[in-house]
Amino acid sequence: MTEDPVHAFLQRYAATVLDRDLAGFLDLYADDVQVFDSWNRWEYAGREDWAEMIAAWFEGIQDVRVRVTAKDVKAWHDTQVAGGSATLEFAALDADGQPLRATENRLTVLLRKDGGAWRVAHQHTSVPVDFQSKQVVSR
């Protein structure tokens, strides 16, 4: 049985965020990745553009470690492309590993074989927003 690229991506994603490993994190993405993120911008076009945002994020979390937990994972793949979705919980941990706060968002990824490795070609994150209050809807 072949490894599921979506689950493998989610495991590496979580590990690189916990370690604030910028190079390892960016290696998950294709050079021409397109990212629709929930934060700050309409689109990030290419790994270099995405790198600026991730570097700023990692710089902003120097006082905590962030544990990423994937829930409700759905995945499919064939030999060249893969896709999936999940709910990601981002929990900030104190020095003792105790959660301080957490937030969730929804993630959809499309991966493709790129130089023998699976890399994200497109990523989309979202959070639902209540029409009346304009507040993020939590589960």
Outline the structure in words:
The protein is α+β, with helices and mostly antiparallel strands and 139 residues long. Helix content is 24%, strand content 45%. It has a six-stranded mixed sheet, covered by helices on one side. The longest helix is centred in the first third of the chain and has 14 residues, at 5-18. The chain is globular. The chain starts with a helix and ends in a 13-residue tail after the last strand.
Key structural traits:
alpha+beta, 3 helices, single chain, 45% strand, six-stranded mixed β-sheet, 139 residues, Nuclear Transport Factor 2, Chain: A, globular
Total domain units? 1
For the record, give the distance between the C-alpha atoms at the N and C termini, rounded to a whole number.
Answer: 35 Å
Total number of beta strands: 6
Q: What pattern of helices and strands is seen along the backbone?
A: HHEEHEEEE
Work out the helicity level: 10-25%
Derived from helix and strand composition plus strand pairing, the structural class reads: alpha+beta
Strand order of the largest sheet: 2-1-6-5-4-3
Shape type: globular
The biggest beta sheet is recorded as:
6 strands, mixed
The stretches of 5 or more residues where confidence is low (pLDDT under 50) are: none
